[in-house]
Amino acid sequence: MNVGDRHYRTIWLNEDGVSVDVIDQRWLPHEFRTVTLKTVEGVATAIRDMWVRGAPLIGVTAAYGMAIAMRADASDAGLDAAWEKLHETRPTAINLRWALDAMRALLKPLPPAERAEAAYKRAAEIADEDVELNRAIGENGLAILRKIAATKKPGEPVNILTHCNAGWLATVDYGTATAPIYLAVEAGIPVHVYVDETRPRNQGAQLTAWEMAGHGVPHTLIVDNAGGHLMQHGAVDMVIVGTDRTTANGDVANKIGTYLKALAAKDNGVPFYVALPSPTIDWTVSDGVKEIPIEERSGDEVSLVWGKTADGTVTQVRISPDASPAGNPAFDVTPARLVTGLITERGVAEASREGLQKLFPER
Length: 363
Known about the structure:
363 residues, alpha/beta, 7-stranded mixed β-sheet, 12 helices, 18 strands, globular
């Protein structure tokens, strides 16, 4: 996608051919900064502290982290240590483990002298594959938007509710939940997006809204608790969210608050879709509520918020009493029974084991 008049991916190889540049998302929407990652420790920090975030982008960043690690120590011990260091950064997003396992499986049989070159090549391929997966998700989701536009909203904008940021900032390009929206705009289909602010880190307000504004997509920022109200009054035609891990039976782990949106959508007859590339499917897990580890992040993310003051200063302020502790589960699980469909690169699947296996029979 474009930032100003320049096209950006969220991650790219530095001109030195060794380091990796990323968009440092902590500063958005008020400042656009990039940062160069030169060590596996730096990559681990970028993932853990959410300089980069979103399951697909986490996976690609981890793949490049393995490549950087192989330049420093390509021994078996170095390979295993890099895998462990990167794996422990974020427990919920399955793309992280998927990418690390893919890299280790490729590199382990190779002589250490060949590992760095092979790792950089494979990391670049994973990045390119992510773009193509998201483009395909966009095409499959666009078909849903076309149908709604033609049958329910002729001549009117299709109103879409999003949650968190499943946009191009969460992937290498296009995004998952936003890919159908961007392609709809390109196709001339009128859309309007209700952007959940998405507390506690406000990825909707800070990232999705920034994306929508930059791409010229009509949108309205709303507080998280407004979604159900809008659905009750017929203001939402569909919900599209992303996911950090989807089970083999169609349960979906996503940013905290997704479950509540799914409940409201079900109660009001609003289609609730989840957009995901196949590496986000964890075929080893069947019960999302019981089996998916939910990351518990610092309570400071709840008690403190970043913002821009009237004089343009970007600063952090506390919104709760100093003595009040805060809990911060980062994700919740939406059961498959609440999901209308899973939009993948191969088509739209029913949220069930049978539905996913129909699209991915090799699994």
